[in-house]
User: Fold this.
Amino acid sequence: MNRKDFPILDDGMIYLDTAATSLKPVNVIKEINNYYLYYSANIHRGDYNIAFKTDKAYDEAREKIAKFINADTKEIVFTSGTTSSINLVANGYFRNVLKEKDEVLITKAEHASNVLPWFELVKTNGIKVNYIDLNDKFEVTLDNVKNAITDKTKVIALAHITNVIGDVRPIKEICEYAHSKGILVLVDGAQSVPHIETDVKDLDVDFLAFSGHKMFGPTGIGVLYARFDLLDKIYPVNLGGGMNESFDTPEEVKLKELPARLEGGTPNIAGAIGLGYAVDYINSIGIDNIYNHELDLRYYLVDKLNEISHIKVINPKSKSGIVTFLVDDVFPQDVSFYLNKYDICLRVGNHCAKLLKDVIGYKNTIRVSLYSYNTKEEIDKLVNLLSDKDKILREMI
Assistant:
């Protein structure tokens, strides 16, 4: 599917690390280059033709992204990525409303970006961070969410799809139940928005954070969506140019309307434009087609790995393009070095989910993460190299 759009694959490299960052199609790179080559001006500052063109391209990118997740354009804030988006919510909103002993619920499968901002509020606000139990498949269930909630719970912060287990959480049902208890829900969409249909109104999420570079877009650009009434209460963490109307004295500072108020300084204009075209690219393929292709490859890979006695698949039943496994008696980093000799790129380590070891019993794992440009032929090559443990041991260094 669409491999011709990725020249990086022309020499036979097998790229299986999309959960870290996706490859970028030619058309996205072209549009970023066009901005730098032909109309590289700042936004909403200049009164000349290329500035008008830049304004239009930047604003259109916001409109594309809003439509992609069924949000209003005023509810879309450009950030540098998921990490920045979550930190903006934690520091610009929750730092101002959470009180001592208020509770934030996460899981031990969360990425560091959805753990450390809450840990910081433990120190600054005296809140409590508690954990929703995972089931025997390391998944979140609605029942376990219900069991974790107390009368102190104010926030539930969860990835829609986790980056190691790859489980798809029941976000819509969680939001419905949480809201019945007056609890707000933040969703880390870094691994979900690029792969499954995401409708913020249908899910009824309060906050959604995601990154451009995991969905065919450039690095350094991300999105924060929030319900307008909540977004309007986020205090800017970046104060400066572009986000104010006027300032005369410390007491006389007037800020702009949303979303400009939360985008202080010169933004990543090229990144936003590139992300807009990445959304176009996903739409040209169809998000459902992408997801179904990933699932087909996942089932094919898991079936083959299950036939190899020295391989243990950690998440055989997860319904995403993430497959995590171990090779008996071989350190994951050594497996990566071995596969790199054959130009196969995948991820090993703790994957920034350093609490997960407490649940799955392993500190480091091997992760394959799939996308539209991957094929069964690539999986066959991977499995063939993994099937001979003696070969791994001979060549891993």
